[in-house]
Amino acid sequence: MSVQPDRELPAIAPVVTPETERFWAATAEGRLLLPRCTECDALIWYPKGVCTECGSTDLEWIEASGRGEVYSYSTTWRAFGEYAQAAPYVVAYVELAEGPRVLTNIVGCEPSAISIGDPVVAVFENTGEGNALVRFRLVSDR
After folding, report:
1. Which residue segment(s) compose the domain that 79 sits in?
2. CA separation (Å) from 137 to 13, 123, 141?
3. What is the pLDDT along the chain (142 residues), one digit of tens a residue?
4. How many domains does the chain have?
């Protein structure tokens, strides 16, 4: 079974909370913002209002590069609901160049083309609700 490189995954709008509003607004602009603790310098993923390392609420937002590498992945061959027609698709952890690991999808390629350690770059898929989902594609200049 193969997947067409242009097969699209559903872009279901996320639940936006006051803690994540700035993150989701930036995705609509094609930017990846991460909260950073000003007390211990930890970058926080998934965006929240408290540092997961030291518990501080003194956070600032930084723009991440959107670059990373595949840390781990799995191919989903059977799916249900809105994802049924998209299978097979890849669910992956991408380790951002800045450090955090993001649970996401790898898009735009055959699942068999992906390997651990592959360089990837963020792409933003519009949800139609004023934000976009952050997914990743393989870097083509490898």
Report:
1. 21-138
2. 20, 7, 12
3. 233 344 589 999 999 999 999 999 999 999 999 999 999 999 999 999 999 999 999 999 999 999 999 999 999 999 999 998 999 999 999 999 999 999 999 999 999 999 999 999 999 999 999 999 999 999 986 5
4. 1
Residue 16 lies in a domain: no
24: DSSP letter = H
Continuous segment of H or E residues that includes residue 27 = helix 21-28
Residue at 81 is within a domain: yes
Instruction: State the Cα–Cα distance between residues 93 and 46, nearest whole angstrom.
Output: 13
Map tokens 């490898």 to a residue.
142
Q: With a threshold of 0.85, does the pTM exceed it?
A: yes
Q: How many helices (H) does the chain have, and how many strands (E)?
A: 1, 7
Note whether residue 115 is domain-resident. yes
Q: Does residue 122 sit within a domain? A: yes
Under 8 Å between Cβ of 59 and 38: yes
With tokens 């799916």, the residue in question is: 79
Partner residues linked to 91 by β-bridges: 74, 105
